[in-house]
Amino acid sequence: MNATTLNTNREQVETVQSGWVLLTTVILLWLLSMTSFIYSIAVVQQLGHPAWKFFVAGILGFVLCVFLLPGFFTLQPNEARVLVLFGKYRGTVRASGFHWGNPFYSNGRRSGNWRFEATKERPVEATVGPRRPSRNKMSLRVRNLNSDKLKVNDKRGNPIEIAAVIVWRIQDTAQAMFDVDDYETYVRIQSESAIRHVASKYAYDHGEDTDEPQEITLRSGVDEVSQALKLELQARLEKAGVAVEEARLTHLAYAPEIAQAMLRRQQAEAVIAARQKIVHGAVSMVDMALKDLAAKHVVQLDDERRASMVSNLMVVLCGEAEVHPVVNTGTLYA
User: Fold this and answer.
1) pLDDT tens digit string along 279-291?
2) Full-model pTM
3) Does domain 142-254 match CATH 2.60.40.2550?
4) Domain positions in the chain
5) Which of 302, 323, 329, 330 could form a disulfide with 334 if both were Cys (CB 3.0 to 4.6 A apart)?
């Protein structure tokens, strides 16, 4: 089976006539046509019939004015119109202002095309009314796409919730118009796919059994993950003529079914880390105390007394409850 390769369209900037010049021409033509038509009717009493030349010229002038009127269109800043003549791409107008183009240029989607969107309350309903004629106009402004919370598995297989905001704009109007069916839907679906793919390449956080202490995770390497997401999106959306300005994670959490277990694990890791630091400090203090006592000849301790002293100091320094001393009136050997 041979794979069919689609031709990639490239934008061509096109210039059209100024709308003000053509508007003046249409007004003058309309005035001349009206004058010619009125004159052809006014000479009926003299000639006994209308002046057919002026009558036909007036009618043709009116028809020509009506024919030229649909060619007028306006473009706002950061707005473009794709010119399609009889199914062939002729170029893109990017200059803002009042313009006139061939009246036979396609106007794109017309009224009566309904969009259907799914909601939680109503699975499928026409939530948006019929589209107005677009005249193949496309916005070049920067747009935001705030993705929904997606449940995916991270690198270690833990279910997590993740969401991102994506800043994008149309870079090539020809690709956005002709290479994909609906570029807005394409951006939304490909963005969700890219977020899922990037999230599966990183772990949520560092684990106890990790072999790479400097491993980039979703929680600690937000900038690196955002850059990777941007590159992933740009590679996917390039064929639609879309440029990704920025991609940033907006939500990151464990899935509800494992959130409590992961919270207990994090608490246990924090307790272990705190205990390790306390023990390390207590050992240092006991060692310092024994060295100072021996250096200053305060007391001579044999091995058994030294072990007892170390035990008591460790209990005092590592214990969480308040220590109550017990006075020993005897000796350790009694």
Assistant:
1) 888 788 878 877 7
2) 0.69
3) no
4) 17-100, 142-254, 260-318
5) 330
